Every structure is written in C-alpha cells, then in structure tokens.
User: Which sequence fits this backbone?
C-alpha cells in the first residue's frame, strides 16, 4: 500500500504538467491531479495487472479535466460567441493571398527529437487565449472530436472550428518566430 | 469559384476537424497545386498535429 502511494506521488509532477497544459490554471490543475490521486488510491484494485501506471493515471486525469472544463463552461454559459477571423486579415493582402507566404520549415521532424523544441511549443501554447487553448488541447491533446468539444465548451461547431483555426494560426506564427527562424 | 489563400488556410485547418465536402476538397486541391505558400501551410498544420501528439509523451521538461 505504502509502496503504491509512493509510486503515485512520483507521477504527480507529470500529471500536474499534463493538467496545467490543458486547464491553464495552477489551482484548477492542482485540484484535478489531487482528485485523480485520491481516485487512484481508492481504486488501486482497478490497477492490478495493468502494465503502465502513468497511462492508467492519465486516463483518470482526462476524465477529471473534462469534468472541470464542463463545470467552467456551465459557469461561463451565455458568454458571447466570438467567431470572426478578422484578426488574421493583416496576414493576407486585399485579394486574400498571403502577404508573407509561409515558407517551408527546415526538417521539422528533427525538431521532434529535441527537448528544447517542446519547451518552445509549451511557451507558444501558454500564449494562446484561454478558450482557444482549451478547445485546441481538447482536440489535439485529449483527442476529442469536434462534437464533444462543442458540447463541453457550450459552443457551436462553427465557433469550435474557428477556435481551432485560430489556435493553429497563432501556433504556426509563434513557432516560426521562436523556433524555426532560429535553428 | 476560386478560393483565396485565406479561405484555403481555413479549410485546411477545418479538414483536420471535419470531413470536407466534395467541392471543398476539389477546390482546395486545385489551389494547393499552384500555391507554395498554402502547401507549406498545410505541411505545417500536419506537423503541429504530430508535435502535439508527441507533447503528451515528453518526460518532464
């Protein structure tokens, strides 16, 4: 039992980072991780025989994160939907073509082998507006379908696609500036 | 109707989240065939997806 408790504690930093990336709020992340560890202790029997403690804990944590987001969305219900993309107009010239067309990134797969790349990526993620980041991380980090994201965030599919588009545009620009133009 | 780069960038992103309609797919493909900027953009979008999938696997930074 004590050994199991020690192993749970050793996963805490990983879980906290995972939850923080998604929730963007240290105290909410802390709560979600705490609830996960409590649930894991209570459900130790459920772990028996499974190969990977981290995978099991992450599975529990995902549910806690979704619960938290659902709660937040309910609290923030009726916030006006903001679905326009005029903020990107500056990137395009009058006829809708790129002002500064995206250039190919040099050997991007090599970046995936570098720890520093992921630090840069996290910094870029932290700069996204909260709701944009939540939608994007639900899609790409938790692997949810748009329909589920709309439901959890209480937004329309169109709004959801706009949030995801915005997140990708912003990340592209950020990575270009902070990483690919420097390597 | 020909698509602009702005429209294509939006559809490339949406294509990662929903199945595009037949005419959307055809028009995007025609545009990509002649536009390097949007072709690079699409590669970058696919790369972002791959990078995010890997992010979860990273040991503590």
Assistant:
């Amino acid at each position: 039992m004590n050994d199991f408790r020690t192993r749970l504690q050793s996963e805490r930093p990983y879980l906290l980072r995972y939850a923080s990336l998604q929730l963007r709020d240290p105290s909410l992340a802390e709560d979600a991780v705490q609830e996960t560890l409590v649930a894991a202790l209570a459900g130790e029997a459920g772990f028996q025989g499974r190969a990977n403690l981290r995978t099991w804990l992450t599975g529990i944590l995902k549910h806690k994160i979704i619960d938290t987001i659902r709660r937040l969305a309910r609290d923030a219900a009726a916030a006006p939907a903001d679905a326009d993309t005029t903020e990107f107009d500056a990137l395009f010239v009058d006829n809708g073509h790129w002002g500064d067309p995206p250039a190919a990134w040099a050997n991007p797969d090599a970046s995936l082998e570098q720890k520093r790349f992921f630090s840069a990526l996290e910094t870029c993620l932290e700069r996204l507006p909260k709701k944009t980041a939540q939608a994007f991380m639900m899609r790409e980090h938790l692997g949810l379908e748009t329909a589920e994201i709309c439901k959890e965030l209480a937004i329309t599919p169109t709004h959801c696609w706009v949030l995801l588009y915005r997140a990708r545009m912003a990340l592209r620009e950020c990575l270009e500036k902070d990483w690919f133009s420097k390597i | 109707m020909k698509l602009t780069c702005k429209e294509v960038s939006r559809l490339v992103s949406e294509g990662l989240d929903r199945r595009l309609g037949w005419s959307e797919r055809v028009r995007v493909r025609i545009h990509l065939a002649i536009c390097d900027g949007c072709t690079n953009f699409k590669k970058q979008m696919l790369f972002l997806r791959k990078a995010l999938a890997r992010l979860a696997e990273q040991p503590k930074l």
Notes: The interface with chain B takes residues 13-14, 17-18, 21, 58, 85, 88-89, 91-92, 95-98, 101-105, 108-109, 111-112, 115, 117-119, 121-122, 139-141, 146, 157, 160-161, 164-165, 168-169, 171-172, 175 of chain A (CB under 8 Å). DSSP finds nine helices and no strands in chain A. Chain A has a mean pLDDT of 86. Chain A has two domains: 2-75, 86-180.
